[in-house]
Specification:
This protein has 419 residues and is an alpha/beta fold. It folds into two domains: 263 residues, Spore Coat Polysaccharide Biosynthesis Protein SpsA, Chain A (Alpha-Beta Complex), CATH 3.90.550; 121 residues, 3 Solenoid (UDP N-Acetylglucosamine Acyltransferase, domain 1), CATH 2.160.10.10. 19% of the residues lie in helices and 29% in strands. The chain contains nine helices and 30 strands. Strands 15, 17, 19, 20, 22, 23, 25, 26, 27, 28 and 30 form an eleven-stranded mixed sheet that branches. Strands 1, 4, 5, 6, 8, 9, 10, 11 and 12 form a nine-stranded mixed sheet that branches. It has a three-stranded parallel sheet with strand order 14-16-18, with no helix packed on it. β26 and β27 form a beta hairpin. It is globular. The N and C termini lie far apart (63 Å). Its EC number is 2.7.7.27. This is Glucose-1-phosphate adenylyltransferase. GO terms for molecular function: ATP binding; glucose-1-phosphate adenylyltransferase activity. It comes from Candidatus Desulfolinea nitratireducens. It is an enzyme of class 2 (transferase).
């Protein structure tokens, strides 16, 4: 059976991430902070390392500076190890002056660099999913079936079928058909792949393992195919041996503000379906060597609290408090994500200290890094489905987001009644 060192992992890190705006206003989507101290891409990179796949290429393009900085500071192998994490940035070449047009096009434009590695198999991954997965099991399934392509698949609830691309898998594990977000129940019936009345369907997770030569042939032979999920895989099902490998663990696609918000707040609960404490599968991130957080005369319930914070006489419920957060006395925070700060600088040109000033009342809000709230600021959620853009804040699906480095003056009110 082939060895894991014959696999090159290729992580998609170049998307614009418009559905996560304004969190992606100044950074690439995989660089968006999550769970107080991590970045979205940390999960995928950690899964590779924990699975024994040590050759990793990250394809970047949009707002990539912070992502490059995070990867180069964090994921460095020692001199006695043969592994590496390499950044393949979008570039103009004699063959192409265009940016990446999609996931498949991104890999196509980097085929020369990929072929130099002489890897026999290419594992294509997304950089914006939260999950813990042993890719070794998928690789063994791929090798055992001598598959041209293996797709990681997850069970889909019957009521969720219209939101997913569904795959039809035969008894031998081979995928025979694909349909994109079917709303017709008669069409849905043709794609039942599991003997489970609640979750009878299989959906793609956007994780693909290719034989390298098969990948090259598909990308060069069909230059108009820009995306793996909607172009390459549906075509390959008709011409190649494509198999579906089961994964029934926790998996979240952090593709929208609502998904980002809900997933973060899920992590605050004691019975959260995903946690960062697994001894066999740790999630790695940048080591910052920050002091422990200090909490003075405060009430905290269901709070995920990162390092380096100072909280004074505050009430915090069902919220994430990120690195170096400063929360003054009399503050109330509920159902919110506070990303913290990049440094301990306390004053800015506005005169407002970094962090949350006295007597602020926050609910249903995301505060990006380095936000400064003056005293007495009130922010409340809007009704679900509400979208709004202003100079100082954004509302997506009812969630209020204060963009990175924003200053909000004292006594400002951002509520449905005041806007």
């Amino acid at each position: 059976m082939p060895a894991l060192n014959e696999i090159l992992a290729v992580i998609m890190g170049g998307g614009r991430g418009s559905r996560l705006y304004p969190l992606t206003k100044l950074r690439a989507k995989p660089a968006v902070p999550i769970a107080g101290k991590y970045r979205l891409i940390d999960t995928t990179l950690s899964n590779c390392i924990n699975s024994g796949i040590y050759r990793i290429a990250v394809l970047t393009q949009f707002n990539s500076v912070s992502l490059h900085r995070h990867i180069t500071r964090t994921f460095n192998f020692d001199t006695f190890h043969t592994g590496w994490v390499q950044i393949l940035a979008a570039e103009q070449t004699p063959e192409s002056a265009d940016w990446y047009q999609g996931t498949a096009d991104a890999v196509r434009k980097q085929l020369t660099e990929i072929q130099v590695t002489e890897a026999k198999h290419i594992l294509v991954l997304a950089g914006d999913h939260l999950y813990r997965m042993d890719y070794k099991e998928m690789a063994e399934f791929h090798f055992k079936n001598d598959a041209d392509i293996t797709v990681a698949v997850q069970p889909v609830l019957r009521e969720d079928a219209p939101r997913f691309g569904l795959l039809k898998r035969e008894k031998d594990g081979r995928i025979s058909d694909f349909t994109e977000k079917p709303k017709d129940q008669e069409i849905q019936k043709k794609f039942i792949s599991r003997d489970d009345p609640e979750r009878p369907f299989l959906g793609s997770m956007g994780i693909y393992l290719f034989k390298t030569q098969v990948l090259i042939d598909l990308l060069k032979g069909f230059p108009a195919y820009d995306d793996f999920g909607s172009d390459v895989i549906p075509h390959a099902i008709k011409t190649h041996q494509v198999y579906g490998c089961d994964f029934d663990g926790y998996w979240r696609d952090i593709g929208t503000i609502r998904a980002f918000y809900d997933t973060n707040l899920e992590l605050t609960l004691s019975d959260a379906l995903f946690n960062f404490y697994d001894l066999k599968g740790p999630i790695y991130t940048h080591a910052r060597y920050l002091p422990g957080s200090t909490v003075e005369d405060s009430r905290l319930k269901d709070v995920l609290l990162a390092e380096g914070c100072r909280i004074r006489k505050a009430e915090i419920i069902h919220s994430v408090i990120g690195l170096r957060s400063r929360i003054a006395s009399g503050v109330r925070i509920k159902d919110s994500i506070v990303m913290g700060a990049d440094s301990y600088v306390t004053k800015g040109t506005s005169g407002i200290p970094v962090g949350i000033g006295e007597n602020c009342d926050l609910e249903g809000v995301i505060l990006d890094k380095n936000v400064r709230l003056g005293k007495g600021v009130v922010i409340k959620p809007f009704s679900r489905g509400t979208d709004l853009d202003t100079e100082t804040f954004v509302v997506r699906d009812g969630i209020v987001i204060i963009p990175k480095n924003t200053h909000i003056p004292a006594e400002t009110r951002i509520t449905p009644e005041d806007i």
